[in-house]
């Protein structure tokens, strides 16, 4: 029998294609989540009413921010799910080692982020169409044209990918110890509550500002990619030592 | 060529050593039976060989590599048991196709033939299979993968007698056509003894015996006769098992280091010399001296 040396790139590719098929359900849940977010956004996110004399102006804001937020939550949850035991065991039924399994997971999450990002921005347009045709609103759009769409899509993809990287790390930590199920939310909400007690800007707000209020596109790209890489590297380093099917 | 070599292999779980200073090696293209009582460490050993678990100390080499995190070992070995995990979204036939994309020696023709023989539905899902059917399906994957190292851990769990027989036959036929190293752990030693070339008996995480099956069959003999005579004959021999039958008859199993003439003499002295089946012998070798299950119920 021939013992062909196994090639990492080759195996990762096969694992990735396998994961796309095996995790097809996560994409159907994406559709439902975005439809739900669309439903919530139909009322508009805000409105102002101005009137003087016979003239009255009502401005309603329609935005798909909620769709993007829901897509981020979906990416976060999906990333956590694929670090759980059954998913890791599935990889080991076929050919893999821990590195190839994680690399395939990362490429899968990237694919998921791309699909999530594109569909989220398309839902945004769907919302405008619904507002125009069904609610008969007069549209004054801030962003239109292909350039804006492309920029919106790529930014959404980046953010969603970064969130999924964070989810992957959280999922990995939970696999190390179930205590993290408690620890992570406590840390998250704890920093928010801290604000009221010490009268200081919460840590979470600074993080939010750091990532979401960056005016330079290049710097933002760098920030997000570096953060994602850091999350993934940490996860790989942890997962590399973990036993499966105990 | 040695496919598996391990030296002083130890696996510690919290408070207990599942494997304790285990050393052995397995040659290429042999069918080895791994036997031992429940909790002896069989599954732990096989999972370490498959690269699932990490050894605590000692060395293990599979294809001259440490199996934990080795892509090569993963590509050239397959671990089959009843708990193999498959994605719930894929149908049975898609699972076979996926296996085909991963394993370089995968034989789809064989997989399909076995699949049809055991009347599986291509569109069925793995999660909904019965226990026996799950084992049968996993066995098909294990056989068709044609991995140079094929590990079956209790592959017959839940299978009925007919399917078990079919499985052993299929395993033997495919092994003869495509020789490979196979490790088979099972509690039904009497069913697989004709299949095995070597046997590895472990007890309490330690190696107890590792020898060719032929040798094991002659390794010990049973002596039956009058208690006094049997005791006299088995004196100074390694006594493995003894059982009092009736008032004055004793059945003893001792290590077979008698020569022909002394066996003749024993027969003349009215002793009945019998061979001991491999599965009985393994039970005797690994039994704990607590006087059997009857002791639990006596004196209550």
From TrEMBL, chain A:
Keywords, alphabetical: Membrane, Transmembrane, Transmembrane helix
Residue ranges crossing the lipid bilayer per the database entry: 30-55, 61-82, 103-123, 149-170, 179-198, 218-239
Domain of life: Bacteria
Protein name (database record): Uncharacterized protein
Organism of origin: Cytobacillus solani
UniProtKB/TrEMBL annotation, chain B:
InterPro entries: AAA+_ATPase, ABC_transporter-like_ATP-bd, P-loop_NTPase
PROSITE patterns with a match to the protein in the record: ABC_TRANSPORTER_2
GO molecular function terms noted in the UniProt entry: ATP binding; ATP hydrolysis activity
Keywords: ATP-binding, Nucleotide-binding
Pfam families hit by this protein: ABC_tran
ABC transporter domain mapped to chain residues: 4-229
Record flagged with keyword Nucleotide-binding: yes
Record-linked SMART domains: AAA
UniProt-listed PANTHER family: ABC TRANSPORTER, ATP-BINDING PROTEIN, SKFA PEPTIDE EXPORT ATP-BINDING PROTEIN SKFE
Protein name: ABC transporter
Lineage summary: Bacteria, Bacillati, Bacillota, Bacilli, Bacillales
